[in-house]
Structure to design on (271 residues):
């Protein structure tokens, strides 16, 4: 029997809560990603790790009426939410597939562009996955990725992880830190066979109303897995202590949520 995939289980678990106003940086990043890509009507786009479909929806609007988007994700529950979002938007040019980003069931050269917002860093072997993504792009086809920088969610995330560690939870570095350094991203893309790498940093942050809103984020995001590792009777004291330490960071405007984001563009070389 194959072991359950922890990333799939994590996102199946948060899918119902993923689309919420506290995490509005995800749709905001998706909109900016599609602006950077500037797809044309008629383009064929593959959105990898589509989640609830933020990029797929924005891209589908940009390529209609003749263009289409194939959108894949590991998590069936995230795809269920994407399906609802597509229906609500009245879009019929998106196909959803439950598929592993490391092994794409698409023909070589099938796409004009491949997008992946906050997804690549979940893959155990990012370079091998990127080579697979390059395979399905046509020569000259474009890649557009996002990731967070090392500043993202700081200092809130550091306080969260330190307090979890104080409660005996075995914390690990956030996965996006594998794709947080522009120079390393450029090297990764070039060694995977991409060219014309361009990386820009944009601040998508905003003020939260207070620690309660941060708490809603950790419960609905990739941090959820760490919270679940707390013993049942430790959850209330953890929450109280963590919220108290965040209260001292509040200003008149609220609690600043830094969402510094990398937009990473590249191209499959023309043959
Ligand atoms: C942080 S969410 C981002 C979702 C969406 N792109 C967005 O910007 O809102 C990461 C997504 O990556 C998906 N994912 C992680 N590993 C994957 C893999 N190996 N293959 C396909 N999807 C994967 C998860 O299921 C999850 O939906």
């Amino acid at each position: 029997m194959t072991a359950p995939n922890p990333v799939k289980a994590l996102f199946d678990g948060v899918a119902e809560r993923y689309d919420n106003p506290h995490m509005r940086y995800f749709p905001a990043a998706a909109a900016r990603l599609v602006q950077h890509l500037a797809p044309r009507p008629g383009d064929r786009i593959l959105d990898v790790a589509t989640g609830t479909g933020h990029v797929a929806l924005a891209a589908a609007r940009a390529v209609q009426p003749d263009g289409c988007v194939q959108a894949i994700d590991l998590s069936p529950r995230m795809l269920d939410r994407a399906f609802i979002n597509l229906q609500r938007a009245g879009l019929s040019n998106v196909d959803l597939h439950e598929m592993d980003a490391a092994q794409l069931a698409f023909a070589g050269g099938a796409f004009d562009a491949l997008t992946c917002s906050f997804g690549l860093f979940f893959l155990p072997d990012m370079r091998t996955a990127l080579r697979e993504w390059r395979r399905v792009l046509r020569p000259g086809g474009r890649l557009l990725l996002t990731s967070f920088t090392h500043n993202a969610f700081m200092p809130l995330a550091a306080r969260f992880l330190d307090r979890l560690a104080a409660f005996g939870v075995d914390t690990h570095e956030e996965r996006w830190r594998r794709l947080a350094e522009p120079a390393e991203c450029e090297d990764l893309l070039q060694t995977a066979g991409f060219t014309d790498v361009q990386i820009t940093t944009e601040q998508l942050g905003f003020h939260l109303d207070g620690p309660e809103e941060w708490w809603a984020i950790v419960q609905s995001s990739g941090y959820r897995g760490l919270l679940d590792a707390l013993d049942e009777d430790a959850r209330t004291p953890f929450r109280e202590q963590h919220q108290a330490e965040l209260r001292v960071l509040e200003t008149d405007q609220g609690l600043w949520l830094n969402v510094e984001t990398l937009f990473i563009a590249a191209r499959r070389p023309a043959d």
In short: Residues 227 and 235 are 8 Å apart (CA to CA).
